[in-house]
Structure formats: structure tokens, C-alpha cells
DNA sequence: CTGAAAGCGCTTACAG
DNA sequence: CTGAAAGCGCTTACAG
């Protein structure tokens, strides 16, 4: 333990009388030294409390054994979103399988750029559009593999997506088919999708386009709806409650609320419940994601099922292939979605 | 870009005509070189696409700028537990504030030991009892700061806990006060708390002790209850549903289910709902944690509120103090809890 | 203001 | 089977 300093490979070499090479082999390639040497070295290492420094090892080997996950927003808003939690679970289980750790990278000092420059990882998975070309540049010059989930496939990297436009279309079509005409649309926070890339290709934009298509197919105009585009939200329960209260302040009230996130929908429902508004009798609410809460909330949510876990897992598997040396180019991975009809959507009262 | 290889500080030095020292200063201590030198160096760096290698930098500086979080179980079971998600959110937001990343460390190859040996982090936060003395030894010889959440405070490290025994006592007392006599107790999975340390000090043990106290205060014996200790669960929704179905197979049915986790309680309720069993009329259910779902599930859960976010945040703050050089010894941090009465607990039918 | 040089703790051809 | 030595890409006293 030589004076409160961690012993190094050198100490073990001196103490055991073997070379540093031998010590290294004792830990990493035991077959290359004699059994006797190995036992002696390991014995000394144990006695001195020696553990190879992972930092030095990683540096020498040029790998970290860790995959990075770029949080699209600050930690509280990111981890407060169950959808992101599920994506994380998918990524994490693949990392575990490969013996890697998973490094969550918050927008350090508010600068995604700095975070990406400094990230000590072997590859990166990004969620949402926040990955602008400036960041892609850094990734490229760092020669670091990366894949994007819910990003714009055009950006020249492998990507995992659902057909957001089609999904949103089906969702809104179901709402219009039920007879709703006065609808509040709750979009996603721009902050998670803002910079870089073609903005009209962002997930919220594509979903709005899907909504528009549903309207126009029925000879309706989405812009006639008072509430459209007015409400924007972070995907957490408290934010959903806030939005719900704002909607409650509208006069007259809309008859349906269409959100882009289950947890936001659930937050809205909670706010409506406070005011004695019955869902779906007085107000219909639909979500997006189909996370587990959508099933057990009351009434159960009509929503779009998108397999968040699989999204994360597919992205991670692709990333590991790239870490292994494969070139995936801008491979597009598309995962199926489906509309799930439950009780939170009904026909409006005065129809 | 010299032939597909990342440029290093050496390339920039040669190309710009300055020394490696100067290049390093240009990035880290600009004030120590002339403006002219700095501009030239930065210009060359930009042109060649140079970004300092974080690995080399970390190695040289002896820090990673990352905090490790030891997952108590495999990723799916860990991240599928909303309580752990909340703890993570608390830890993460403190990391973000300090400009650190958060490394999730799964039990690699099933071996927590290996995971801890190899973790490239500046400090570690562990959740639950899985941190045995073998691991503490490694942490000590690696001279790595660590703090434990829901662990045994006795282990000689800083710890964050609630008074689990008292909390469990209050919870069970409320159930018994409502008149229940036939109770199914759903304990936590042993796997998350098994090895190392004094087993009777583990969180599930302390909660069982609290339950026992509540029984004995009413001249009842917890062991007379058929179901006691019989059901054990991972804290995820699907596991809760499984447990609920197993309970449904009992004959006669108990009148109340006491769990140690909201999401398990909610899973049980879902299984009961399948069978047409009404909660709380036919069956009472109580949870533990008071995560957000406990509020919006129907009926809302009677549960123990424990501030998971604050637990994570406090642990992280303590860890950063240790990383900063402070010695915290085995400082015990205790966070208040409280019983939250909602609709899922009622008086049993035939009483 | 600037640079030569040692050092961080490992790994790994290479030669014996 | 074993070891001397170079190398990974940075940082940082130290001397000028």
C-alpha cells in the first residue's frame, strides 16, 4: 500500500521481481507466462492491493467500454419522460449484453457541443433533432460512430424512426372520425428538436403534417381550429398538468385534446379531473407512445403504440456493429407503430 | 486529416511551428501564450480537424468527469422500476450541475466485482445492499469515493436512507387498523439485496420488521398470516401483474395486498381488474414510494411517500464533496417519509 | 512568452 | 517463458 498511493504495475514488478510485461500478462494473457510467475505476481498484487487502473488501460487500448447517450434536454426533463426511460432501457440492455457501460451525457454547461467534444465513450446515440451538423462534424472528426433515434434520417447517419407522419395521421383521423371539431393540439417542446438539420423534418413537424393531412382529407383546415399549435410541452407529468390547466382556462372548452406524449396526456387528464371534467364524457384525450401508464390510467388511453424499448435496442445494436468496424452509412431502420383504441376517446357530447 | 488518422497535439505542433506545450496551452490556458500564437494554433487545429482526445486528457489529469451508478440488477429490472428512475433523475441533475456525466454500470457478465474493478469513473453511487464487503474492498483499494442509497449504513460509507422499519410499520398499521386480517405481503426480490453485509439490515428485512411490529402491537402474529413472505417480486409492472395473478389463484383470497413498491401494487391492481375484482371494495392494495403513477392510477394508491429524487440528489452531492477531497466517513443521511392515504385501502367486506 | 522533457499507467511488438 | 523499450496523447513543472 506504499504510503497511501495506489500501487501500479511498476510496484508489482519490483516487488515480485518480474517485469512489467509479465505483470501485464498475468492479468490479461496468463497463458503467456509460467504458472509459477503468474502465481507469484498475482500473490504480490493481492497483497499490495493492486488493481489495474481502468483509465490507463482504456487509454492504452483506445477504448472505453462505454456507449454514450446524449440527453436531448436537461436531465430532469429527459428522465422525467417515460418514453425516454424506455428507450434508455432498450439501449442499456444491449450495452449490458456487450459488457459495456452506458454514459448519460447531459447538455453540459448548456452546451451540447462541449459535451460531445469531451465525451469519453466509444460511440454515441442521440435522441431527437438536437444533433445539428456542427455536432455531426465533431463526431466525424472524432471518428466516433453514432446513430440517431427520432432524428432526421437525412443527416448521413444510421437512424431509427417510426413513420411519425402516418402515425399522427391515424391518431388524428380517429379523433375526427369520432366527430370532434374543436381540438386542442399539444405539440412537443421545440427545445428538444430545434437546432440544426431541416426543421420541417423534425418529429413534431412530421406529426403536425400528419394531423394536417387528416384534417384536409375531411375537407377541414387544421388552422381553423383555435387551439392548434398553441400548446407546447415538455414530456413530464407536471408539465402535462400545467398544460391541462391552461386548456381548462379556454372558453369555450375544446372537446378533445390531442397530445404527442402519453405522460402529457395523463397530466392533462389529472388537471381535468381536478376541475370535475369527465374524460371521455366531457373531454376526449389521446396520447402517443403507449408506455405502460397508458394501460393502467383511468380511463385507459387511446394512443399510438411505438416500441420504445426496441428503438433503443436497435439503435444500440447498430452502434455496436459500427464500433466493431462495420460501415452502416445512413441505414434507415423503421419500426412499425399501431393505433391503440381505448376508452379515453369518445364522441363529443353535443353531436 | 493526414490519412484517415485523427490528428494529435503533435501534428498541430509541427504544422503550426509551435511546441506541444503551446498547443496544450492554446486549449487549456490561453492566457499563457501570445494572442498571435494562440490564433495560429487554433487556426491550424481547426483546419486539420483537431479535437483533444478526451481519453488521453482524462488519463493525464486523473479524472473522468463521470460519476458511476451501480445498477442493483440487470438493466431491464433496474430501469423498469420507476423508483430507480427517480433516484437516477436526482443523481443526474446534480451531475449535470457539476458538468459531469453519469455512467450506468450494469452487473457486467453477471459480476458486480468486475464491473466495479473496471469502472472508469471518479466516484460511485450504489443502490441497495448488493454492495458487499468484497466490493467495498475494491473501492477502497481503488481509493474511489462512494456512497450508498438504501444500503446498510454500517458498512463504513456515507449513506442515504429513510427509516424503512418505521415507514413499513405505519403502512401495515394503517392496513390492520382498517380491519384486515388476511394479508398478502409482497416483498422485494432478494436478488437486489442478497450478498454481503448483515442481511437482517437490508431494506426488505427492515420493512418486514416494521410489519411485524404492527402485527404484534395488536396482539397478532405476522406468521399466522398464510401469505406472509410468500410473494417476492422484481419492481416492474409486468412482475406486478404476475404477482397479482398468483394472488388471484389463492383460495380463499386475502382481503389486502401489502407491497413494497408502487409499480408492483399497480401491476397487482391490473391483474385484479382482469378478474373483475374491485379495488378497494373486494381487495385493498397499498404501495410504497409514492411515485407519480401512484397519484393517477385508479383508485389512487395508499402508499409511503419517500422522495426518491432527493435521495439521489443528496447522495450525489455527498459524492461530489468526497471527490472534492472531503472525508465524510460513514455520514448517515436520513430523509423523512410519510404515509399517504388515498382510495386503494378500505375496510374489508365481511367485517 | 516559449519549449524540451518527464510523467501519467498501462499494452505490445520485438528480441532473446 | 521472459524483459527492455517504445508508444498511446495528453499535461505541467521547470528552465530559459
Short recap of the structure:
Two copies of one chain form a homodimer. Chain A is α/β, with parallel strands linked by helices and 351 residues long.
Give a structural overview.
Two copies of one chain form a homodimer. Chain A is of the alpha/beta class. Chain A has helices at residues 9-16, 20-28, 35-48, 54-61, 75-79, 82-98, 112-118, 133-141, 164-177, 203-217, 237-248, 262-274, 292-296, 308-323, and strands at 66-70, 101-105, 123-127, 146-149, 159-161, 183-188, 231-233, 256-258, 284-286, 303-305, 332-334, 338-340. The first copy, chain A, has three domains: 2-61, 434 Repressor (Amino-terminal Domain); 66-161 and 308-334, Response regulator (Rossmann fold, 3-Layer(aba) Sandwich), CATH 3.40.50.2300; 164-306, Rossmann fold (3-Layer(aba) Sandwich), CATH 3.40.50.2300. Chain A has 14 helices and twelve strands. In chain A, the strands form three sheets. A six-stranded parallel β-sheet of chain A has the order 2-1-3-4-5-11. The longest helix of chain A has 17 residues, at 82-98. The relative contact order of chain A is 0.13. The model of chain A has no long low-confidence stretch (mean pLDDT 88). Chains A and B meet through helix 4, helix 5, helix 6, strand 2 and helix 7 of A and helix 4, helix 5, helix 6, strand 2 and helix 7 of B. Strand 2 of chain A pairs antiparallel with strand 2 of chain B, so a sheet runs across the interface. Chain A binds a DNA duplex (16 and 16 nucleotides) through residues 8-10, 18-22, 24-25, 28, 32-34, 37, 52-53, 55-62.
Amino acid at each position: 500500500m506504499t504510503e497511501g498511493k495506489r500501487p501500479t504495475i511498476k510496484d508489482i514488478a519490483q516487488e515480485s521481481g518480474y517485469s512489467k510485461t509479465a505483470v501485464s500478462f498475468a492479468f490479461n494473457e496468463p497463458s503467456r507466462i509460467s504458472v509459477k510467475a503468474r502465481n507469484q505476481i498475482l500473490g504480490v498484487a493481492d497483497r499490495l492491493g493492486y488493481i489495474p487502473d481502468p483509465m490507463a488501460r482504456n487509454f492504452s487500448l483506445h477504448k472505453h467500454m462505454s456507449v454514450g447517450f446524449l440527453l436531448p434536454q436537461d436531465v430532469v426533463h429527459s428522465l422525467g419522460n417515460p418514453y425516454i426511460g424506455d428507450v434508455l432501457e432498450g439501449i442499456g440492455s444491449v450495452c449490458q449484453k456487450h459488457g459495456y457501460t452506458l454514459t448519460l451525457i447531459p447538455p453540459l454547461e448548456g452546451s451540447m457541443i462541449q459535451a460531445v467534444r469531451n465525451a469519453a465513450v466509444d460511440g454515441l446515440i442521440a435522441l431527437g433533432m438536437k444533433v445539428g451538423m456542427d455536432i455531426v462534424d465533431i463526431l466525424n472528426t472524432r471518428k466516433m460512430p453514432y446513430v440517431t433515434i427520432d432524428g432526421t434520417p437525412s443527416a448521413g447517419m444510421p437512424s431509427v424512426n417510426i413513420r411519425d407522419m402516418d402515425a399522427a395521421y391515424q391518431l388524428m383521423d380517429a379523433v375526427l372520425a369520432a366527430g370532434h371539431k374543436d381540438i386542442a393540439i399539444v405539440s412537443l417542446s421545440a427545445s428538444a428538436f430545434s437546432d440544426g438539420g431541416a426543421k420541417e423534418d423534425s418529429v413534431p413537424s412530421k406529426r403536425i403534417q400528419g394531423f394536417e393531412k387528416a384534417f384536409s382529407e375531411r375537407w377541414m383546415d387544421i388552422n381553423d381550429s383555435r387551439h392548434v399549435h398553441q400548446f407546447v410541452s415538455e414530456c413530464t407529468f407536471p408539465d402535462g398538468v400545467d398544460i391541462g390547466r391552461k386548456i381548462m382556462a379556454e372558453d369555450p372548452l375544446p372537446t378533445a385534446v390531442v397530445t404527442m406524449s402519453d405522460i402529457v396526456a395523463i397530466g392533462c387528464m389529472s388537471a381535468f379531473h381536478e376541475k370535475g371534467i369527465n374524460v371521455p364524457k366531457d373531454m376526449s384525450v389521446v396520447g402517443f407512445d403507449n408506455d405502460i401508464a397508458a394501460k393502467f390510467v383511468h380511463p385507459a388511453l387511446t394512443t399510438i403504440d411505438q416500441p420504445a424499448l426496441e428503438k433503443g435496442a436497435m439503435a444500440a445494436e447498430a452502434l455496436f456493429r459500427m464500433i466493431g468496424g462495420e460501415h452502416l452509412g445512413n441505414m434507415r431502420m423503421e419500426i412499425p407503430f399501431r393505433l391503440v383504441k381505448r376508452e379515453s376517446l369518445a364522441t363529443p357530447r353535443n353531436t
